From TrEMBL:
UniProt comment concerning the protein's domains: Lacks the C-terminal regulatory region which is replaced by HisZ.
Reactions this protein catalyses: 1-(5-phospho-beta-D-ribosyl)-ATP + diphosphate = 5-phospho-alpha-D-ribose 1-diphosphate + ATP
Species in which this protein is naturally found: Aquibacillus koreensis
Organism domain of life: Bacteria
Listed name of the protein: ATP phosphoribosyltransferase
């Protein structure tokens, strides 16, 4: 039986495949997969899903391993084993506001995809805020007057800059992570050990 790896589609997928190739794994079937969501290589079964769904497949043991952003782990806190950091997907979580605009004294409204992280961040400050959940392009919310600020991922800062926003406070650092199903780690230890070791070695040389 081949180990099953759930891979976050999009940005993380691209970076993981480059990294995986650098470890001498064959990624040809994955690059040429077209619209297929399940692909077998000589050594693995891969499934492609959105980040939060990757954690669900790993939590349920459908996938033995998962490749996912740490932001997703922080937001949804799935019951998985957080095995190791990967050398890509580096970003931080930040509260951002419109440049030159005063931070209002009244109860503030914050837009985010990350409502749990936002809630915890303001709770720690002892501040009560209204939170509006958005699914993407969160930078629009202050510009259009939906919110006073946003809590979102920042990497280069270009998206904020190009939309007239600035970081008010950065508060968490993330990278992509390899996660594992807790029982797979025990039951399939021999099957998973080679790939886990290869990933660890790859991380060490980066
Ligand atoms: N600008 C960024 N820099 C570094 N890592 C990022 C950045 N944006 C997202 N990520 C990481 O990549 C993961 C997937 O993000 P991506 O934008 O590919 O998908 P998404 O946010 O689910 O959006 P979509 O709806 O387009 O799939 C995030 O969970 C995060 O860990
Ligand atoms: O600091 P930067 O390098 O500009 O990166 C930050 C942007 O990247 C992510 O968006 P993504 O591209 O995933 O699109 P989304 O807004 O639809 O999630 C994030 O939500 C920011 O918008």
């Amino acid at each position: 039986m081949k180990p099953c790896i759930a891979l976050t589609k999009g940005r993380i997928e691209k970076q993981f495949l480059e990294f995986f190739q650098s470890l001498n794994y064959d990624i040809e079937p994955l690059i040429n997969k077209g619209r297929k969501l399940r692909v077998e290589t000589d050594d693995f079964q891969f499934v492609f899903a959105k980040g939060v769904d990757v954690t669900t497949y790993v939590e349920h043991g459908i996938a033995d391993l998962g490749i996912v952003g740490e932001d997703i782990l922080a937001e949804f806190q799935p019951d998985v084993y957080n095995l190791l950091p990967l050398p890509f997907g580096n970003c931080r979580m930040a509260l951002a506001v419109e440049e030159g605009k005063e931070w209002p004294e009244r109860k503030r409204c914050i837009a985010s995809k990350y409502t749990n992280i936002t809630k915890a961040f303001f709770k720690e400050k002892g501040e009560s805020v209204d939170i509006v959940k958005l699914e993407g392009s969160v930078e629009l919310a202050p510009i259009l007057g939906l919110a006073d600020g946003i809590v979102d991922i920042v990497e280069t800062g270009n998206t904020l800059k190009e939309n007239g926003l600035i970081v008010k406070e950065s508060f968490m650092e993330f990278s992509a992570r390899c996660i594992a199903n807790r029982s797979s780690l025990k039951i399939k230890r021999d099957l998973l050990a080679p790939v886990i070791e290869a990933l660890q070695k790859g991380v060490a040389v980066k």
